[in-house]
Design a protein that fits this description.
- The protein is α+β, with helices and mostly antiparallel strands.
- Helix content is 27%, strand content 24%.
- Strand 5 (98-103) and strand 6 form a beta hairpin.
- Helix 3 (179-190) crosses helix 4 and helix 4 packs across helix 5 (206-215).
- The longest helix is centred in the N-terminal third of the chain and has 25 residues, at 2-26.
- The chain is rod-shaped, with a radius of gyration of 40 Å.
- The N and C termini lie far apart (138 Å).
- Residues 29-50 and 166-177 have low confidence and may be disordered.
Length: 218
Amino acid sequence: MLKLIVLVGLVVAIVVVLILLLRNNAAPSVSSASPKQEVAPTSSPAPENTGQKLNWLEGLEGPVTDKTYHIGQRAVTIGRAPTNFVQIMEKGVSRFHVRLTPVGMGLELQDMNSSSGTKVNGNGVSKASLKDGDKFTVGSSTFVFRRTADFAVNEGLVGRKAIGGEAIKPTLMEEDGGMVESLVLRALDEYSNDVVKVAQVTNMSLDMVEKIRDKYKK
C-alpha cells in the first residue's frame, strides 16, 4: 500500500513538472531589440525658379548697342546674310561671319573664315569658348555674353531686321523666305566661290548664282 502511494505521488510530481515546462515554452519571448524607426525619405530641394533664361547676347557697342538676343540652346550665326540670327549690314561683316554653339556652361564661338576676323576680349581668334561676361566683336559691333538673364526684349524673336544699313530687298525667291539664297551662299562657302560648281549642285542658272554671290560679296 505504501509503495502504491509513493508511486502515485511520483506520477503527480512528474505531471506537475511537465505542465510547468509546457507553460514556460508557450510564453511569448520578449525581444530586447529596439523598435524599428521609420526614416522619412530625403530629397534635394527644387531649384529656385528665378525666371531667368540661359544664353543671351547684349549689344555694347556699334549698331547693336542696347539690343539683347536670347540664344537659348540653339546654334546661331551672325553675319550680313538675311538668314543669320543677327543680321548686321556692314562692309566689315561677312555673309556668315561667326557661329555660336551652346556647350556646357557657355558658348563655343567659331569664326567662319570671315574677311575681317572676330575678336574675343580684344584678341583675334578663330575659335574660342565664351564664359559669362566675355566680349566679342564682329565688325564694329561688340557683344557681351550673359549666361543667365531676363531682358525684357529679345531682338532675335521680335526684331530680325538688318542692323547697320539698309535692309536687304526681297529677291526673286521671296516666296521661299530667302531659303534659296541661303542655300546658294552656303554652297559658295563650301566650294570656295566656284559659281560653276554651285550652279551644278543647286540646279540653278549660272547667272542667278552670280547675282546672289555679288549681292552678298565680302
